[in-house]
UniProtKB/TrEMBL annotation:
Species of origin: Aeromonas taiwanensis
Pathway(s) this gene product operates in, as recorded in its UniProt entry: Porphyrin-containing compound metabolism; protoporphyrin-IX biosynthesis; coproporphyrinogen-III from 5-aminolevulinate: step 3/4
Pfam families: HEM4
Protein keywords: Lyase, Porphyrin biosynthesis
Family, similarity comment: Belongs to the uroporphyrinogen-III synthase family.
EC class name: lyase
Top-level division of the source organism's lineage: Bacteria
Single Gene Ontology BP annotation: uroporphyrinogen III biosynthetic process
GO MF, any single term: uroporphyrinogen-III synthase activity
Full protein name: Uroporphyrinogen-III synthase
Domain Tetrapyrrole biosynthesis uroporphyrinogen III synthase: 14-236
Matches recorded under InterPro entries: 4pyrrol_syn_uPrphyn_synt_sf, 4pyrrol_synth_uPrphyn_synth, UROS/Hem4
Amino acid sequence: MVPLVVRPAAQAAELTALLRQHGHAPLCCPLLETRPGSELARLPEWLPAADIVIAVSMHAVHFAHHFLLQTGLTWPHIDYFAVGQASADAFAEAGIQALCPDDPRSEGLLALPALQGVSGKRVLILRGNDGRDLIARTLASRGALVHYCATYERHYPDLDGDALTRRWQGAGLDSLLVTSGELLQRLLALVPGPQHPWLYDRLLVVPSPRVAEMAGEAGFTRIVIAQGASNQALVAALELRKME
């Protein structure tokens, strides 16, 4: 198959290599860049005061861990949670065992028994410079003291959507690997409107029911939900569809 990889450069390179190992001919076009967040410097203050740390993406963990390594600090012995398997894997790479729900969404995380009795607990949420606030609002309603830490920031490269779309069509693009609602929206904005029917007919692999719902509302008709946002999960989902 000829899948399109749109995740940030480091993860895109790994995913592209993995796809080639499985006989695919991927096209790589990162639609998002990640950079160190403005609040990383506050980690030495906020992290030791936390009872619970929640990561909403693997980027949040990677940037936090890199900062801790640079400053000689370590992760404290507290409770860690990850919204999805990719975030949990990032914690594991840092030597941290994080609890992760089977349902890789904020709703799945909030349903975990360990996050029901959090009254009085200090919760630090590692994330980008924006995002959904469902986790913070819900935990606050349960009595937790919630604080965000923007460990990374998102930046969008300036791309020529018309030229890219024509190149993808010429290369026989037949599938899309999109790991977040944000990247899905970015892809929709990039591809010219007249080419949207062509885009909607591509096989779309997404990491969660929430992103699948967004895609269905946008107009996509062939949607596969992977077991999370990890590169391995995305490739496994594509392989299963290839064998059908």
